[in-house]
UniProtKB/TrEMBL annotation:
EC number: 3.1.2.2
SUPFAM superfamilies membership: Thioesterase/thiol ester dehydrase-isomerase
A biological-process GO annotation: acyl-CoA metabolic process
PANTHER family the UniProt entry points to: ACYL COENZYME A THIOESTER HYDROLASE, CYTOSOLIC ACYL COENZYME A THIOESTER HYDROLASE-LIKE-RELATED
PROSITE patterns hit by this protein: HOTDOG_ACOT
Residue intervals of the HotDog ACOT-type domain: 16-142, 198-313
Protein name: palmitoyl-CoA hydrolase
Enzyme's top EC category: hydrolase
Principal location: cytoplasm
Species of origin: Macaca nemestrina (Pig-tailed macaque)
MF annotations from Gene Ontology: carboxylic ester hydrolase activity; long-chain fatty acyl-CoA hydrolase activity
CDD domains, A to Z: BFIT_BACH
Compartment list: Cytoplasm
Amino acid sequence: IFSILKLNSAPGLPDTCASPQPPRMCGPDIQTPSAIQICRIMRPDDASVARNMIEEVGAIISTWHCNSQNRDRCVATLARVEHTDFLWPMCISEVAHISAEITYTSKHSVEVQVNVMSENILTGTKKLTNKATLWYVPLSLKNVDKVLEVPPVVYSRQEQEEEGRKRYKTQKLERMETKWRNQDVVQPVLNPEPNTVSYSQSSLIHLVGPSDCTLHSFVHEGVTMKLTDKVVGIVAARHCKTNLVTASVNAINFHDKIRKDCIKTISGRMAFTSNKSVEIEVLVDANSVADSSQKRYRAANEGGSLPMPQRLPETQDEKKRFEEGKGRYLPMKAKWQGHLEPQP
């Protein structure tokens, strides 16, 4: 079992291979790695480890970049996980290669593209298993509620900056659209009918402990994503009466930080079903033991491969979410079919 970090240096710097330590700060014009890669052999207890490592490698390169100038020290915090594809499963004893690259920076955020490759160390066979885009914001170490400015990244082509700016505006609008729905509550229903939303909706309650947090006593975003994945699996299993795998994540928006000693409630419910897949919506509430403030996150996952029992919308709100899910599903299905077609 091993874990190494390979640094792909910025132009003008030699390639290095080192332990995960930040680059030496040597003046106002500090150069940081343009891309990094983490390698790790998969163990039996590494369920969902690829998702956690995706978040970690993005946080490393974002924090390095945001501290590349002489300024207030900061730590990059995950604000949004863009659409994530799970193309192939990662098997035990395979080596996971997680690479990250900064593709765009705005005034207060960093876009990171992450790819995960699996390698069979016996045959040397490699394949792309995961693709994800993540957005981070730098928070000051002196005041974690203060968002600092991000040093601009150097683009090799002008088109890269323009395309990145379009992606930034799109994700910002989608992120804002989820805030008005943060007052949604998943209410339990007594004796629900099979194949209804109420029948399969599920919740997990988790007390945030020290092992769930960063050095600043805020919950690590990877912990929230892992709990979300568990709830999604429970909802899908209740509805389909079989095992399922996550095929993609539409988006995860982190609207606020969760502190240590909070009680998290992760609730999932059906949003849409097709013939062979199901979309599940997830809410995360964080209730402080000391006060009554609540924080919610929103996620939408879709997965499956067997014929699905069709979801039966009952209320107007459920019918509306079904149509919204159908609108997301049809373009995604066309995209998947395009990937499956033989390449010339």
